[in-house]
Amino acid sequence: MNGYTPAPRRKRSESYVKASRRQPAVFPTRVVLTLFLLLIVAVLALMLTRANLDRLRTQREQAAQEYDRLVARHTVRYREWIEKYALENGIVPAYAAAIILRESSYDPNATSSVGARGLMQVMEDTFNFVRRNLNEDLTFDKMYDAETNIRYGCWYLGYLSRIFDGDPIEMACAYHAGPNNVKLWIMNYAADQKNLRLEEIPMEDTRYYAGKVYDAYAIYFQHYYPDPA
Fold it and tell me: Which domain holds residue 217?
């Protein structure tokens, strides 16, 4: 032994030992709450979206069913005569069908309070006007005959079409209130003094009638009478 004594090792201080130990990770409570709230919001948003989609789907189905019922209410009778006499007079068959629906609901024996008769509710003055132009010897009672009524009514629609250049609103107004009234309305109420729009018709009952004819015309054209062109 040479008398050498090694120096004792120093113990690490307690603070150093503690500092060197790896602390376990602590997930912040605020982050957990935030994520939880975001999850709730996302679930609620998804539920709301699904509810809105279900409601929209239901509304669309109901609208489609209502439209189908509306289409079914558009009577289709006397189709052969409507197509024959409408086309002979330059009228779209769907338009003549719409006039018949709104005038008589396809009742060949209909008589109005002012004496209009038959499917297209032809007035006696109108009957005499058409009869003279066709050079026929018929009585007004023939307006209860379905084919004759359609033939006379379509001839008159062709006459109105030539006056009003085929405008369906103006023709419906003229059929309901007379062509002379419509000419005055065009001059006094049409914005361009050429084309009378539905909202510009001054008489409420004629405006209602023309709107209904136009709606029926659209349905007949789309679902029952193909484009003759």
Answer: 79-223
